[in-house]
Design a protein that fits this description.
Elements: H1 8-17, E1 25-28, E2 34-39, E3 43-48, H2 54-69, E4 77-81, E5 91-95, E6 100-101, H3 112-126, H4 149-158, H5 164-178, E7 188-190, E8 199-202, E9 207-211, E10 218-220, H6 234-245, H7 255-270, H8 290-300
Antiparallel strand pairs: 1-2, 2-3, 3-5, 4-5, 6-8, 7-10, 8-9
Helix pairs in contact: 3-6, 4-5, 7-8
């Protein structure tokens, strides 16, 4: 599929519509789905790479205003145009959120737990939105990619990716985790890609300035939004989430921890048959072994209760 062409003339035309001179258009690191440019100092232009990614931009145009009204820190949509009537590409212009994305933060802030609690609080605000409170969101799908972990384990064994003893151990682990899962988890609006590269942070204050890239938003189990961050940050995220939502830390069944671990483990195992390297991709899970190594690192580091009891 051919890419949308971003000529100098196209960029100048879009910039001009917002009172920005052509020489003030500067490229920013591109994502998988979009070309990104800075328009002056205060605006960001996003153009989908191909028509395939246009549906995500349409979705973002619908979701971002709703998230903003819920109090979530995210840039504001200034313009969205998918008509190609003025320029020959669809595009979105947003207000600029200052900061460095967490994946590029060097050196890492010394107060990471504080930062992760802020992320958890933002998710608490977002997850108050449900199909009953926001019934008509354009292009937002219902998550239906439910993976049976026992069937996945069997396929990995049959394919020679794991041995029989590992399969028995994994089956037992999923059995124990499943006993902690709710029968019917709530369906809420999730960002879908809460990951370091989508969190803009003030490097000096460890303040979360904004959450970007809403192209993976969907209606899903809220635990999904804790499954694309390294597990080392999740306990603090859950602390912030519980503070925001008024949920107390569980003294009985560790339902939230089990739900998050469930997704991490399934997605880690799902990459085993797909070991092809992906050099240059910024997402921490792009290398095939990253999730499994993340699980190993987390549980080897002596995680806080009740995590150790879930291993």
């Amino acid at each position: 599929m051919s890419e949308y062409k971003m000529s100098d003339g196209t960029l100048a035309a879009i910039a001009g519509r917002h009172g920005v001179a052509a020489e003030q258009v500067r490229p920013l690191p591109a994502g998988v789905a979009n070309h990104v440019f800075l328009l002056g100092d205060d605006l960001v232009l996003r153009v989908p790479r191909t028509e395939r990614f246009l549906t995500d931009l349409v979705k973002e145009a619908a979701v971002i205003p709703v998230a903003l009204r819920a109090g979530v820190r995210t840039p504001e949509v200034v313009t969205f145009d998918d008509t190609c009537s003025v320029v020959d590409v669809p595009y979105m212009v947003l207000t600029r959120t200052r900061g460095v994305d967490l994946a590029r933060l060097e050196p890492p802030t010394t107060d990471m737990e504080h930062l992760f609690r802020q992320v958890g609080r933002e998710l608490g605000k977002l997850h108050r939105l449900s199909p009953s409170t926001v019934p008509a969101l354009v292009g937002v799908p219902v998550e239906n990619d439910v993976v049976d972990p026992w069937a996945l384990t069997d396929r990995l064994l049959e394919g020679g990716w794991i041995d029989a003893e590992a399969a028995r151990w994994l089956t037992g682990w999923f059995d124990r985790l499943s006993a902690c899962l709710p029968t019917s988890p709530p369906m809420v609006l999730v960002h879908g890609d809460i990951a370091p590269q989508n969190l803009l942070v003030s490097p000096r204050t460890a303040r979360l300035n904004g959450i970007v890239d809403w192209g993976d938003a969907e209606w899903a189990d809220p635990a999904v939004d804790f499954a694309k961050m390294p597990l080392t940050g999740v306990p603090a995220m859950l602390d912030g989430y519980r503070w925001e939502t008024g949920q107390e830390t569980s003294t009985g069944t560790p339902t939230w921890e089990a739900r998050v671990l469930w997704f991490h483990l399934i997605w880690a195992l799902g990459r085993l048959p797909d070991p092809v390297p992906r050099p240059g991709e910024r997402h921490w899970t792009a290398p095939a072994a990253s999730r499994l190594l993340g699980l190993l690192r987390f549980f080897a580091s002596g995680p806080p209760a009740p995590w150790a009891d879930l291993s």
